[in-house]
Amino acid sequence: MAGQADGQALPDGIFSILDTDLYKLTMQCAILKYLPDVHVTYAFTNRTPHMRLNRAAFQWLQEQINKLANVSLTQEELDYLKTTCTFFNATYLSFLTSFRLRPSEQVHATFTPLNDTGSLDDVGDTHLDIGGRWLDTILYEIPLLALTSEAYFKFCDRDWNYEHQETRAYDKGCTLLQHGCVFSEFGSRRRRDYHTQDLVMRGLVRASADAQSRGWRGKLSGTSNVHFAMKHGIPPVGTVAHEWFMGIASITNDYEHANETALRYWVGSFGEGVLGIALTDTFGTPTFLKAFRRTMPTPENSVAEDPKTLIPGAASPVLGPMNGDGSEANSEERSYAQIFQGVRQDSGSPTEFIKVMRDFYDSEGIREKKTIVFSDSLNIELCVEYMHAAEEAGFVPTFGVGTFLTNDFRRVSDGQKSVPLNIVIKLSSANGHPAIKISDNVGKNTGDSETVHRVKETLGYIEKQWANGDETSRWGTAQGEATRAQVQKA
User: Fold this and answer.
1) How do residues 174-193 score in pLDDT, each as one tens digit?
2) pLDDT tens for residues 304-343?
3) Residue 322 DSSP class
4) Please, is 161 exposed, middle or buried when counting C-beta atoms within 10 Å of its C-beta (0-12, 13-18, 19+)?
5) What DSSP assignment string belongs to 162-174?
6) How far apart are CA 313 and CA 297, in angstroms?
7) What is the DSSP letter of 384?
8) Distance between CA 82 and CA 286 in Å, rounded?
9) Is the pTM of this model over 0.90?
């Protein structure tokens, strides 16, 4: 493993609070407005359990977690957010300016060796437990995942180097752009390390410049990582995560109305036409679409609105039809499906999802061309395939490509695939209630099993298993390359 790049020592750990995905900040903004006192917990899962940290890796990880207490928003970063992310209100930016993580209080990391000899080489299971106010802990997920991956490849698997990483990213970018794909870089959470992501961004930005000069139809639309967007001069992109829907469902303990409640408070946070890509699969897409066709409350119809879409103790999110700049928009009653620019596909069969969404919009009489953001199981081949399928169905397809870009390495010793970790951190409870995710693929069910079973029965959820959704080998195996059915989740 290379320890330096371009003759300079590489940065150690996380040194910018913006080294995270945009949707963590947008959700924190919404939480500050409506749910500032909700207490939550998060759970860490290693979906590749045979790939364990050793004691040296864990000790380094613990040091980096402790150092997160020193990270804060700089004046330069504040100025950047003010000019680039205009959907953030002054109250939130003021909050973020003084915000600090408190890992000694909020993160409990433990290491359980399989065979404890006291050696730094002892391997074992790592557990990360995060807890505190949702407002104060929501920014841990991306840094902790990135640091865990970096720890593994810094101490446990060192059979790799940075050679050709920028060139590979450039070549991948050129291929996607030449085929006409519009895509963003989504790889922060499972990157090999900071420098790898920086190299990838350099390659993609260079590919984007060449694509523009050559008149290619594709476009690099941005990166989900706000720090790298700022560093490389491209847009930060993202809207909302499963966490928003999971948290609201857990707080209200009302899964039948959770999707609509989450949509309503999201629009109440930012207005219409802003951050308007809806995530459909938290409790299964069929259940989501029942809420998506509902009419959004306005001042004219809020008297008769369903109180089940209000969160106890939170202010009502009904602001009336408005644009993102706060000006009044069209005052006619419209559904959430009309208001949102499109949807994100993150589990299950993408081609089936295209058909489901085409049928849905047609049944609702919605003629406006909508966007589908694909963010699951992506490589070049699949992006091109889904692009053609979505365009033929009348959609505008875009892609969030992650680990295929930021953790695609070969072993130095034999040239075989250097397999990434497949790790996640998910909300596990809110205000003492379990938080769960069902998704459109049984392999991605997360959370308390009894709650998952109860919610499935309540919602009439039909179990689905996507043939290409095996999370244990999604990225390939140590024996060789991933098959088409084992490409990475972005």
Assistant:
1) 999 999 999 999 999 999 99
2) 456 789 999 999 886 554 444 555 555 678 999 999 999 9
3) B
4) middle
5) -TTHHHHHHHHHH
6) 19
7) H
8) 38
9) yes
Which residues are within 8 A (CB) of 117 and not within 5 positions of it... i.e. 6 or more apart?
none
Secondary structure, 3-state, the chain:
CCCEECCEECCCCCCCCCCCEHHHHHHHHHHHHHCCCCEEEEEEEECCCCCCEEHHHHHHHHHHHHHHHHCCCCHHHHHHHHHHCCCCCHHHHHHHHHCCCCHHHHEEEEEEECCCCCCCCCEEEEEEEEEEEHHHHHHHHHHHHHHHHHHHHHHHCCCCCCCCHHHHHHHHHHHHHHCCCEEEECCCCCCCCHHHHHHHHHHHHHHHHHHHHHCCCCEEEEECEHHHHHHHCCCECCCCCHHHHHHHHHHHCCCCCHHHHHHHHHHHHHCECCCCEEECCCCCHHHHHHHHCCECCCCCCHHHCCHHHCCCCCCCCCCCCEECCCCECCCCCCEHHHHCCEEEECCCCHHHHHHHHHHHHHHCCCCCCCEEEECCCCCHHHHHHHHHHHHHCCCEEEEEECHHHHCCEECCCCCCEECCCCEEEEEEEECCEECCECCCCHHHCECCHHHHHHHHHHHCCCCCCCCCCCHHHCCCECCECCCHHHCCCC
Tell me the percentage of the chain whose pLDDT exceeds 90: 83
Contact 292, 282 (CB under 8 A): no
Give me 32's structure tokens: 């500050």
List all residues 6 or more positions away from 215 whose beta carbon is below 8 Å from its beta carbon.
none
